[in-house]
Each structure stands twice: as C-alpha cells, then as structure tokens.
Amino acid sequence: MPTPPESNDDDLSPLLSEPFASAWAAPAEPGRMGGRLNDRLQRSLEAERGMVTVRRRNAAPAEAGLRWLYRAPAGRPLRPGEPRSVCLIELQAGQFLQFEKTDGPREFLVLRGRVEIDTEALTARDFLLLPAGNAARLISLEGAQLFMREADATVAARRTLVRDAEAGWPEFAPGIRRRVLWAGAGQAALLYRAEPGAGVPGHGHGHDEECLMLQGELFLDDLLLQQGDYQLAPAGTGHRITETDTGVIIYAHGDLDLQFT
Which of 41, 49, 134, 164 could form a Cys-Cys staple with 130, CB 3.0–4.6 A? Predict the structure, then answer.
C-alpha cells in the first residue's frame, strides 16, 4: 500500500483531503496513472529530504533583527560552497548592528530600503562583499531588509561592490539574464532575471546551490518557490526542472558554470 505524505507538509496538504485521501488507501497498480503519480511523489519527497527549504510564511521569528535561514552544523567540514550561515536582517530607521570580525567573507544584498555598510550607502539590489577580517557596522537610513551570507575561511575574496543602478543584465540563455556579483574558484554569487515561461535544463551541483526568491514564482522540480522563500541544495544533488510561469528575479549562490545533465 502506498505511504501517504507526511501530514505536516503544508505544500502537500491538499493531497490529504478528499477526494485524494481515499485514493491513498487503494492499491497503486504499476503502470497505471495512480501508480505513476505515487512513484513521482515518492521520488520528489526523497529528493527534497536532502535539501533545506525555508518558506517565508513559516520562517522563525527574528532574533535581535536577524532571521536565520541556515546555519551549518558544527563538528563537520563544510561541503564545497556550503555557507557557514545565512540570514535576513530587518532594521528600523536609525537602527544599527555591529558584527565582529569573521575569518571568512560576508556578502550583503539589500532587499529593500537604504542602509549604510562599512561607510557605503546602499539601496535595493545593491551588493557588497566584505573580505575576511572585516567587522561590519550596519546603519539603517530609512528602514531596510538585507540578506547576509557568511562563507568559510577557505574562500578568498576581495572587497566587491555592485550597484544595481550601474550593473547590466547580460544574456545567459533564451529568456534569462544573469548578473555575476562575485566569482571565485568555480562558485559565484549571482542575480538571475527570467521572463515568463523561461527555464534551465536539468543540472547537477558541484557546489551547494542557494536560491532566494526576490520576485515571482519558480518551480524547482515539483517544489514551487515564491517570493521570500529560500532553498539550499547540497553539492552532489541536482534539479530536473527549473522553470517559471510568472517570471522571476532570484539571488543564487552556487556553480559559476552550471553542470547540465
């Protein structure tokens, strides 16, 4: 008998109500539609177990202005491209935060508002990377939300500033444009802008691949990501489907050159 999906999975909850609930109790014959759908569902659930997905609607409350999306477990080496930590920062007008020096680089992407970081005044979609050894002081100029990513000490990076108003959108693939914010040793911080209906072929991940939805909706395999959602796919995994019906703008951190399969 097929095993129904976990009842606490919000994305699959419609499948647990009628008329679908009764179908789970019926034998799924191989080759029949029900059997094929069940097989696909089980494969999708198994693939997603290895990934970290944080829904905007389910994110934990902010702690001192920080909303953590991911923190690497202590006591094991980081995977290629795995972040030490990833968080969203919420600041009220005039509020400031002081971060201590870190042994790896920090990336900041402004999502909304205006903020000063390390004497640089930044606005929406401006990107700043501070190399290892820098302490970061953030001052909100009018209320702001930022994305912050801390990398491992093995990642060598120079100070990098990319202003949205000055950066272009080079064409990457049909219907998709890509802005490289920073790149080094095969990995990169990127912004993607895709038109409705655009998609990327199936690909694997040589480095951990992170995706933060800035605008629109995106299917990663059978998972629909919406504005504010975050997913981390570990190195060694892959995506069969990456496509959008609405058009999207995405921050991504992963392979500079996608490993198409």
Answer: 134
